[in-house]
Amino acid sequence: MVKEKKEKSKEVLILAERIKSLRKKAGYTSYEIFAYDNNITRSQWGRYEKGEDIRFTSLVRICKIFKISLEDFFSEGFNSK
C-alpha cells in the first residue's frame, strides 16, 4: 500500500520558511551544522524546515534556541491576508 502524500497548507509552508530564515539569520548556511550545534538530529531539523512533523513543543524548543518568544516568531511572515 502506497501512502498518499498530503499537500501542505500555505501556513505550514510559511512556518517552515520562517524556521529556515531564522537559521540563516543566525549565520548558518548548513542546516546540518546548525542541528549538530544545537543538539538536534539533522533529519529532525530537516523535517522542521520542510514543514513536517512540527509539534507545538518543537516550536517552543525552536524559539528557545533562537532566544525569541512565540510572539516574535509569528511576527514575521504570518500576515492575515
* Proportion of strand residues: under 5%
User: Distance between termini?
Assistant: 39 Å
Helix content: 55-70%
From the alpha carbons, calculate the radius of gyration and give it in angstroms. 13 Å
Number of helical elements: 5
The SS-based structural class is: mainly alpha
The major sheet is characterized as: none
Low-pLDDT regions: none
What's the average pLDDT?
91
SSE pattern, N- to C-terminal? HHHHH
Number of strands: 0
What is the global morphology?
globular
Commentary on this structure:
Helix 2 (31-37) crosses helix 3. It contains 5 helices and no strands. It has 81 residues and is mostly helical. The mean pLDDT is 91.
Task: Give the helix/strand layout.
Elements: H1 10-25, H2 31-37, H3 42-50, H4 56-66, H5 70-73
Helix pairs in contact: 2-3
Summary of the model, kept short:
This protein is mainly alpha-helical and 81 residues long.
List the main descriptive attributes of the protein structure presented here.
mainly alpha, globular
